[in-house]
Amino acid sequence: MLEGTILACATAPGVSARGVLRLSGPAAIPSLRSLAVNPVVLDGCPGFGSVALALELDGARLDAWVTVYRAPRSYTREDVVEVHLPSSLPLMGMLARALVIRDGVRWAGPGEFTLRAFRNGRIDLAQAEAVAQVISATEEAELRAARRGLSGELGAVVRAVADRLTGTLALMEACIDFADEDIPEFSGGRLSGEVGEIVAAVDRLKRSTSLRLAGEGSFHCVLAGLPNAGKSSLLNALLGRREALVSELAGTTRDPVRGTTREGALSVTWVDLAGGYPRPGERLVSGLDGRMNPETRAAVERLTSLELEHADGVLWLVDAAGEYPESLEAFESFEAAVKLLVFNKVDLLDAPARASLAGRYPAALLTSALDGTGLDELRAAVGKCTAAASRQGSLAGEPARFLVSSHQEAALQLSREALDRALDVLDSGAGLELAAADLRDALRSLEDLIGEVTPDDVLDRVFAGFCVGK
Ligand code: GDP
Fold it and tell me: Which domains are seen in the chain, by residue range?
């Protein structure tokens, strides 16, 4: 939803000198103006500027430092206002509530400022994803890789491959149109060669990207299990911060949530999956809520399986106070280099029940995300696995040029698979229409990554690139 004016707290909760509330949209300036004792100072900022604004809030005066970015010279290309206040959550909450009840101002959804920047053409999709990566980078190498994405470099490389693919598709469409005329330029052999070169380009691109920080060696530990086992709570407890606050907002974030901590000599990246879990006999089925549409569900399952494939270890969480035969069956059924069974919520069990659980499952870990029971043991167990992986050298590797999200990784993978299908079709001589459909799929996946190429581009190339004079 891109309508209205949105508001969010732009600074992280916690102790600091200043906190910033950010607004974007047509009511950003008027809503603040309506609370100001000295509103005229806002009018003195025609394009971009900062002013000291006195606000009246619940009958008391509040001095704020306000930066105004008028459209289109702002991050979102809309009117944006940043209100700098003393970093007091109650104070910021009071001002936010006073603004939210005014003139159609509403709370922003996750990533909505960046979504607006993308929709309003300020950044491409790869840059939008890099924004999140830059924000969550915990190591310098990670930051460098993410900033390359932010600078548009990744988008430019993908765009070059997509352009080439668009050209090949145009060539193929021309071959289809002129199938009856013997034009050597439009031969099947040339098409296979073109597609083969695009496959090589996508492979180069894939080699230069990584879901994870390579080189330094970060151990990827995925938290999986049935919904409600306490995965987000455990992630928060391990990271010591309220990461999952994000998911309380609109419930739209289905991407895995991750965070990195240092465990002994190595960093561990903990990943909380959106809820997918493998069931016996199936590689992966999601336990996600039934209201999700099939496309979103398929996308989440794809991301989930990618995360599991890339995992160095899987922590399988089971609700210790619930019924768990199905969950234990699922734990037994999937394969992972390292998998640990974790009974969470043991705070809900009395001492004899805990002892009985420990007796029945001696290899399992017993934790409570709520009161911190067993977290040190869990860190130690994962630390042992990281040490083993580090000895085997399985975490070493070339630092990636670009850091990508699981959505971007999946898009590249899908594009590569569609190109393979196109090559198979061309080799078997099964008809150019089929191969063209596969190329379109490949293009759509790249388009998904950068959010730019449209089917119109294909048409434009057909007409402009070939000048067939028809
Ligand atoms: P997820 O769906 O696996 O991510 O589960 P959540 O982390 O969202 O937790 C589901 C519910 O269980 C929430 O109401 C949590 O507060 C609660 N919960 C999570 N961990 C614990 C725990 O260790 N003890 C207790 N008593 N409740 C917990």
Answer: 5-108 (3.30.1360.120), 153-211+400-464 (1.20.120.430), 218-395 (3.40.50.300)
